[in-house]
Amino acid sequence: MEFTKEFFDRFPKDFRWGTATAAYQIEGAVHEDGRGPSIWDTFSHTPGKVFQGDTGDVACDHYHRFEQDFDLLMSLGIKDYRFSTAWSRVLPEGKGTVNKVGVAFYDRLIDSLLERGIEPAVTLYHWDLPQALEDRGGWRNRDTAFYFQEYAALMFDRFGDRVKLWITHNEPWCTTFLGHLMGEHAPGYQNGKMARAVAHHVLLSHGLAVDAFRGHSSAGQIGITLNLNTVYAASSSDVDRRAQDYADVMANRIFLDPVFRGRYAELTDAILAPIEDGFIHPGDMEVISRPIDFLGINYYSYVVAAGDPENPGVVNDVTPRTDVTDMGWPVNAKGLTDLLQRLSQEYTTIPLMVTENGAAYADHKVEDRIADTDRIRYLEQHIQAVGDALSAGVDVRGYYLWSFMDNFEWAFGYSKRFGVIFLDYETQRRIPKDSAYWYRNLIRTFQARLG
Ligand code: FCB
Question: Who's near 282: CB < 8 A, 6+ residues apart?
Fold first, then answer.
């Protein structure tokens, strides 16, 4: 399927077509220029945590190659780019002394983007907490929220003149659940009580950063990025609907409700460890629900939930697995339309931005060509789904494809490829896949419509 010029009629003229990355997944240079260690350095170097012992030590060596990488972005006509800054590169201890060389790195990086006409969108936290703060209790410690606010304020101060789009956190769900309940991500705990505390402190830090931003003179916009899943009930039975509710709180409402309604969803206590009296300080929920300028949504997959009549607390995942990506994630583009509509109906009328969407597939390089038709099909369906949401009146302002290039996919190491640029990790050669040219063509068609 090709997108015609008419397809884009429903898109706003300034719709952002971007790609996304994150610091630890691409930068490498972990010991260079005064960068302090982060929890992902520790985790990836702990035997058994990451597939085949892969680490982000070198990754895509983007730290040394960002100029070429941005040339590549430019040659593809991609004018929006979302990336994250490594907290421990600018504040090696997480607080206190600023690493000037680290700040200078992001200074150059941002200028390089702007020189090429590419608009940066900066995520302040994409999971790489400074190890020094982890040693003081990490996100379990309320103080970390205030250190995050200081770090955020520093970034607004240094880069607010040039960066107009800010994202506080990427996917607090993963920090909370993968990091502290399932143990699959750094720092690797498996403790429900901890997870509950982490969720609250991460949310608090988000609100505190928004406060810092409003107190700053910069003219940009700030939001948060949540990973959200559309949850369907396996049937209309009460049991299945209840399972759907449970799964929805667990996947979505756990962060949506505090941010947009200033309270935790009713089922939160039943699903997670209850919070102790006095744990939530007076005023916390007001801070957490401070108005934001846009909501970032990362959408990859969906869930079909079924209940168990004998056991009301149990949710069975009965999602069909006929069409799955290389991650094993079931594909359902309509879930994205439904999600965007639901958000605009139930939660907020602020602009929505898809800050990540994309797919891993096992790519085959044949004489320097990667014919990634599966990825193109996935992207087509999901961009169509964004178009459907726009037709239904939802205010969507951007789409950032995950990812610009293959990179360190967390616990899966380098075994999963999400990029539209292929990375030959032996040589650090970058090779655009067919999907990169397809995306270039899509953007060209969009622009041609503008005349
Ligand atoms: C998201 C993460 C991103 C990447 C994609 C595949 O959860 O934000 O870093 O790992 O999934």
Answer: none
402 CB less than 6 Å from ligand 1? yes
Q: 398 forms bridges with which residues in the sheet?
A: 16, 353
Residue nearest (by alpha carbon) to ligand 1 atom 9: 22
Are residues 400 and 353 in contact, defined by beta-carbon separation less than 8 angstroms? yes
Q: How far is the CA of 356 from the centre of ligand 1 (A)?
A: 8
User: C-alpha 284: how far from its chain's center?
Assistant: 24
Residue-level pLDDT, tens digit, the chain, 451 residues: 678 889 999 999 999 999 999 999 999 999 999 999 999 999 999 999 999 999 999 999 999 999 999 999 999 999 999 999 999 999 999 999 999 999 999 999 999 999 999 999 999 999 999 999 999 999 999 999 999 999 999 999 999 999 999 999 999 999 999 999 999 999 999 999 999 999 999 999 999 999 999 998 778 999 999 999 999 999 999 999 999 999 999 999 999 999 999 999 988 887 778 888 899 999 999 999 999 999 999 999 999 999 999 987 799 999 999 999 999 999 999 999 999 999 999 999 999 999 999 999 999 999 999 999 999 999 999 999 999 999 999 999 999 999 999 999 999 999 999 999 999 999 999 999 999 999 999 999 999 988 7
Q: Which atom of ligand 1 is nearest to the CA of 170?
A: 8
User: Which CATH number does the domain 16-357+384-414 belong to among 3.40.50.720, 3.40.50.2300, 3.20.20.80, 1.10.10.10?
Assistant: 3.20.20.80
HSE-up (13 A, CA, CB side) for residue 284: 19
What is the pTM for the complete model shown?
0.98
Which of 60, 177, 224, 402 to probe ligand 1 with, by most ligand atoms within 8 A of CB? 402
What are the E-state strand segments in 186-238? Answer: 221-227, 230-233
Pocket lining: 410 vs ligand 1, CB cutoff 6 Å:
yes
Residue located nearest, by CA, to atom 4 of ligand 1: 409
Whether 171 is catalytic: yes
Could you give the CA distance from residue 48 to residue 280 in angstroms, rounded to a whole number?
A: 36
Q: How far is CA 141 from CA 197, 202, 283, in A?
A: 8, 10, 18
Q: 123 CA to middle of ligand 1, Å?
A: 13
Any ligand 1 atom below 6 A from CB of 404: no
Ligand 1 pocket check for 171: Cβ under 6 Å: yes
Residue 247 Cα to ligand 1 midpoint, Å, equals 20
Q: How far is CA 157 from the centre of its chain?
A: 23
User: Of 27, 134, 171, 409, which is the active-site residue?
Assistant: 171
